Queue: 2 jobs
Job 1
Amino acid sequence: MSDLNKSIGQAINRIDGLLKVTGAATYATDYVLKNTVHAVIFKSTIAAGKIKDIETGEAEKAPGVLAVITHKNAPKLNEKGGVRGGALLQSQNIEWYGQHIGLVVAETFEQARYATRLIKVSYEKAEPKVDFEKHKKEAIAPKDNHDAIRGDVDTAFGNAEFKIEAVYETPIEHHNPMETHSTIAFWEGDKVTLYNGSQIVNGAQGAAASTLGIPSANVRIVTPFIGGGFGSKGGQWANLVLAAVAAKAVNRPVKLALTRQQMFNSVGLRQRNHQRMRLAATKDGKLTVLAHETTTHCAIDNEFVEPCGDCSKVMYEVPNSLISYRVVPMNIIIPTYTRGPGKSTGSFALESAIDELAYQLRMDPIEFRLKNEPAKDPSNGKQWSSRTTVQCLQEGAKAFGWGKRKIEPRQNQQGEYLIGYGVACGTYPARQQNSSAIVKLTRKGNDVKATIELAASDLGTGTNTIIAQTASDALGLAVNKITVKIGDSSLPPAAGSVGSVGAASFSNAVNDACEKITDELMKKSTKQFFVRPTVANLMVSENLTAFETRADAKAPADATNYSSHSFNANFAEVWVNSLTGMVKVKRFLAVTGAGKILNPKTARSQIIGGNVWGIGMALTEESILDPRWGNFVTRSLADYHVPSNLDIGTIDTIFIDEKDTIPNKLGVKGIGEVGIVGVAAAVANAIFNATGKRVRDLPITPDKLL
Amino acid sequence: MMTEDTPDQELTEDEKQLFGQLLCEDQNQLTDFDEARRNFLKQITLAGGGILALQMFGKETFAGSLHEPLNAELPVNLENSVNVSFKVNGIKKSLDVDSRMTLLDTLRERLQLTGSKKGCDHGQCGACTVIVDGKRVLSCLTLAASCTNKSVTTIEGLAKNGELHPMQASFLKHDGFQCGYCTPGQICSAVALMGEARNGEVSYVTPNVRIKAAPIQLSEEEIRERMSGNICRCGAYPNIVDAIKEVHSAKPVAQNWNLVDQKELTEI
Amino acid sequence: MRPFKYSASTTINSAAQLLSANPNARILAGGTNILDLMKEDVERPDELVDINRLNLSVVKPITEGVNKGGISIGGLGKNAETANHPLIRQNFPLLTQAILAGASAQIRNMATNGGNLNQRTRCPYFYEVSMPCNKREPGTGCGAREGINRMHAIFGWSESCVAVHPSDMCVALAALDAVVKVQGSSGKVRSIPFAEYHRLPGEMPEKDNTLQHGEVVTSIEIPKNNFASKSYYLKVRDRASYAFALVSVAAAIEMNGSGIKQAWLALGGVAHKPWRAFEAERFLAGKAATADNFRQAAEMEMKQAKALEHNGFKIELGTRAIVLALTRAMNGGTA
């Protein structure tokens, strides 16, 4: 193969970057369709009970209004069709504050928004369950999560000489992608097209079709660009379907964008977790007990539990272990997957507790972790396909200057600042999911080009770019000869950009399709090949102007015989103002072993993004409910503090270059999720090292350090 | 293992290689940083390959042929209609708007300039940042009615004669975005910031605001503070700072992605 | 946002007349707060009087009257221009720092000085129209009093309202003994000492300040002082930038030999108005500029504070912030 065939692993710029820096990238509401009208949703102002009546007359008479849709006149929809969280205007029932109860469609956005203010709703209020503190004792075992028990935790813990028992609290958080959930819907006959940011293109198609009660083939999801999702655009929410309902009602294209305030009770959230940890160790630092008991909340009639215990299952060798979940249904919107689901919040508890126990032993926390490194996956006894925790810790310690850290806190002060170092590890499973891809070759003279098609998505992860790089290598064509078409449900079905499966699933499917097309062209040819030819050679030699094929890729059959994960080690240097309690993470280092890195530039960005999320989790992000009414008082980006630019210091990333082809042929493990795992704990541990103060409830705002 | 800034570095090895793929031209040309970049971008635009096709895919396959573009005038009667005449990206516009219509919605819904983004609609995220009469402002909190005789520059107006504004090129090089939704606002904000630095304007993190100097050299901390009105949920901040630093200092800023192979590890 | 008539004025008189003629009319200046509140349906004017074309944005030395030797800033001057004006940076760096501690660069380019004074509270119960709020809708109760009140007042609150004034700029103006000049339809100019411009909520939280309907803030006068080299604005917040204050402090010290001749202290994020710390100022006059004295002064001031359920931390934080702001002021106004 020629030298060109080394695109994978190169730090090329995003192929869609030019569109993004010029404003030409088209997100859902950027499509200009003739005769588009605007829908604005209105919401319940109680958390539990029933709608007695909705008066819509005044709104209907307002200028420009075309329709007001409520439970009284909404079409019958299938509430079990796969839309998360209900709120499809099918009944009077109210289950959380801010549930959708109707929408106005008008000629202009200004007219629709105004008309929602003219709606009058009367309620039959019930006592809402919104105070987690009050209701957590009613928590019960969830249907889907069984307690995982090994050994005898209680006895071993009782007898242990060195032990930690503590509760770690993480608050409700919101995804808050910069693009609110937005849709343009238009019907052509009985077919509907939905421009909508969807992390799982086929998932959105299926959910919309099933909820609307029409065949999947009649729903087309178009989502070439997504303004962030972080899990909130993984599942589909009522707004997607309600846009279609509104477009049908007025027989015109409808644009429906949730407001930022509406985002807080429309598209899920990361739930509050109360995590009780019990850890014990021998004097020489061997873990003997690890119990991780999570209590959390879910929707009144729908369960979702973040797997906070996942890291605790696999990170350390320990004979006595308990992982459990208890959940209390409440009048709060159903929680959903949020970046690093379970692992990010769970690792805060686990890795803080590990740090606490290491300190109790007066042992370096890296040394303590190395002593408890498991040879096999402790949760199922499977071999690791590869595990890089040790390398991550050792390489990170060297690069970060960990040797300068003192075990005792408050040893490093500069002026009014206390400086501390912290470390914490993380992990996230690596999987390849079924995906199909079509490769189409065209030729003009000697110029051969390829188009790759699959219903993948790119929410900023770099999917477009890594697909082009993969195809470039597999076809022997330069990247600029490759066109990537994704983000459309009419393309071959593919996995979603969720749970760190995207890169592995897409790149392997594309690689398979490209290898297959080369094989097919070689079969067509009567020539003998001593070196595997490029598709360009073959197209020319066979005098073909167009050729295409499709591959349906699956994970290797024996992948599940192994335990495959990405691993990381996070290092934080914090400066805590000893007077005001304000914390700055001056320096952060993430060392990641995530298999083959397809594009170091975009991969680094992904890790940095996860780190920023983790720093936000540690220091600034919190959604606060009024326990009387169930409304979020932090319902705007002024009140919900996503980190600002000034909150972030220097971030460095190191990748351990692994060659692990057990989970998939290309050896891709995924990085979107692991980047946040362990970050909050690294920051909290650094704050302890700086101040001697152990904060176990996030976020660590200035008041907690006074 | 942490790589250090190499100020004399013009292009990364990765970039040179990419140029090799994309340019098919004499690599000796690639000596001057800016020129190389501009050539590079021109070539991308002209290549007819992945990127342009993607653009076609986004803009035309779906919306173009099927639905004719909207006229600037709306087919409905507006209450409290206000006529506004102003310049957008150098072109005179005159239209009647609902008095309630923001500059942001006017750009997006009436002038088909959808680059400016609505992230919060309440002045809390910066995604809608545009430049009005040379100053960066929030188009979501600006009434179109109040824009008469003003000159508005949006992300669509920054590239000139087929060449990217240096800030756009630098964001591209430094991967100063992920999802790209906040990017138009970030770039408009950063472009205006360069003017503020030239004028010697100070910020909350400026050590002594009584000292006058123009232009001023922005430290990383200064860039961070001055860009804090643009929220990026993907967390691209370090790359955004690098992108701005490169334009501000007119010196290449190193890009560090550190790959440690197994051999190196065994030497620890 | 309710439908409204847009009117643009070119003179103060015509603006004042338009406003006086319609009790439901509001001023449009920078728009950063009024449009935000109109979208939330908190403000419901049926007319906006755009005053941006009025010639009220000049920064100039005051050549006559009681504030002679001081500087006057126009009511319509943009926050960013005011902060960066050479006269302000040189003579009132405290004001520069305070303005630049607030909001974001974009908002400071839009927001006006008068508008900064008249901005409304960011209390979430005020902002969400389905919640009770005496400020927005008198008689409905205070949602925050028994609710989530971490960001709320510790000084001067009433059972009707525990909201805080959100401005940073105003905290500095309070410490600087500024005077607000306003003009109504009669053409008469009123001078309001800064301490009397904003109100405590009492039984009338719907009234934020003493500006009357129909009046426009024409300028703000800042008297000459001798502490430009010893002042500092400290802002403590949950996020490093672009966040409202938990507590902020404007501090300035004029020395007399080795002792403090006089100190000026005002606090933000703690009351319905910028809170002038007169107790602490009185204590510091004539004392040595030591950490001990700063601490004692701060504690004396904070004795009057009364915490709500979630904001008790503001008392200790405020004490520390006063000490730190005074320390930095003594160090020449740098961090």
Note: Chain C touches chain A through 36 residues (CB under 8 Å).
Job 2
Amino acid sequence: MINLEFIINTLSLGSLYAMLALGLVIVYGILRLVNFAYGELIMIGGYTLYLLTGFTPLPWLFVAFLAVIVSMLTSLATELVAFRPVREKSLTAMLITSFAVSTLLQNAALLIISPRARAVTLPQIFQKSVLIAGTDVPWRNILTILTSIFMLALLTLLLKRTVLGIALRAAADNFRMTRMLGVPANTVISSAFAISGIMAGIVSIFWIGRSASVTPTLGAPPLLVAFVATVIGGMRSLTGAVVGGFVYAIIISLLGIFLPPDLLEFREAFMFVFVIIILLFRPEGLIRSKTSVERVG
Amino acid sequence: MFKKVRLWTALISLLILSLLLSACGGAQQEGTIKIGAALCLTGIQAPLDEPALKGAQLAVEEINKKGGVLGKKLELINLDGKSDPVTVGNAAVQLIEQGAKAIITPSDFDFGGPASREAQKAGLVGISPAASSPFFGSKALGDKQFTMSMWNTTMGAAAAQYAREQGWDTAYVVTDDFIQYTKDLGQYFVEHFKTLGGTVVFEEKYTQGAADFSAQLARIKALPEMPDFFYISSYMPDLGLIIRTMREAGITQPILGGDSYDDPGLFQALGPEYGNDIVFVTHTWVSPDTSPQMAEFLKAYEAKYGGPPEAMWAATGWDVVHILAGAMEKAGSTDGAAMAKAMEDNTWDLLTGQLDWEASDKGHETHKQAAMVRLNAGVPEFLGWLMPESQPAP
């Protein structure tokens, strides 16, 4: 069963999960905050796709671009309105705020649009497959892989070659020291949220590309995947997030194939057993960061 | 000082809020018959319950226009069950305290059961518009508890019989193990399909929310021979993902399923490209030519909501209120036991077909025809009514 089609499908899933995990970890790295409203950014991206493809004549590529922008703006707005006021208080306050933002956004979608699933019109290329070595491979899977490679390259470039990137990395290593050296905290944190929002927006296109529908509760499964992937890969390292995303996809796909039929319904349970085993041997995840300073104030 | 001021503002706003809330609660008219509903307007149950509530509200208005029931007006109070069994149960308790004479419960055994148990405790009729589990009846919940839906035994059997009538011998079954409904339905289909001489190639599992079907797909693609059709017991939103994943990979075999397919969101998500050869068993066909009753319902619905019902579930809400009103009229009172007896003793002519309940010692099993619908290029078409000749035991 492990043929080319399966490998491409798993790689595509891994790419999607890697982008998901990156968006979550970039905020965690700096604020030590697991943003539980992250899934809702994907949901917002999805509803933007639904509204703009369904009710405007805009070309699809432009709509996709707008979805990413709207996700990013939502992410920035939540930081400004919800997280910034409580940032100096405590980590717990921020964590609870993130739950509140998540509930708020979910219910907003529910009230404004509908609790029922809405269909998103997809571009033609999302309905097409290409014949590779005798099997039909959906274009969407290939596009997912290509997009994630592009985004990884872009992000690496940003982090390694720009002042903002250096500030972001420095802040992730030791936020207090970075601030003392004159880097404005608000700018760094806002940038992290913006990047997180962009990742969520891009993920929303491909996540919804698979089901062609969006619901208010769409954000929960990707949030869980992102969270587990970062725990596997290492919460403090961007490389870890990528590795975690791929490891998650590979383990879950292999479990799906090799578990006997009677045990298939416990696939997630086996998955979490693997996570526990990984954490027993590598409590900080597969990739350790050089420094591991707790967040201060 | 600052803290004190804040405390005061908080207290005052709380006071105002509670006043507002009690004002809402106090706005009940005297001399009405109250029907309580614990339908879920939020959470995963909302896609079924929200349209049902709209249908129920419309039915109450229409009945009141015609003079009400037993000389009194009906009043429908809904408390959001929030797709949480405990909240649903609490909502029912509160509704009973407010004087509800019957309880409409969410359309699922897991979510609707708690409201029915409370209704039974208070000696009231509890009825679910579309819970299809065989547990939703007098055996598990009590002698005044009903569901209006055909049971999953009928729903599974109808699909099995349809498949055999098409001359299909082999089935590949995918069962979503997230809720009782999909598990039951898959199981009854398998049982009945085997009874009718079919072969089940493999029983695949999927869990709602996993949002990935690639491992299952790999197993399907590795089959030495494609089955005649697939039976997929799941629901939205992941149902769309499963079917799209299969169709994208070039699997064109027919797909069969239950009432959870009856969702315009799914039809559009599949589109003309993938929405082909999909047949499902559901409660009714919403079109003016189904029955004169349906035409009347659609006209009233358009007038009230400014458009056609978003989903078939609206018809189930309308039916449930008409059954309760009819039972009150026939029993001549709002007494729970008398209403339950009237519901058992009569045959009901509904938007969702003809309905006959067994007595409470037979579990209030429903005898109801199934509506068969096929998706063609993303557009549903009515195949007709089907009453399975036999069905598995619950």
Note: Chain B touches chain A through 49 residues (CB under 8 Å).
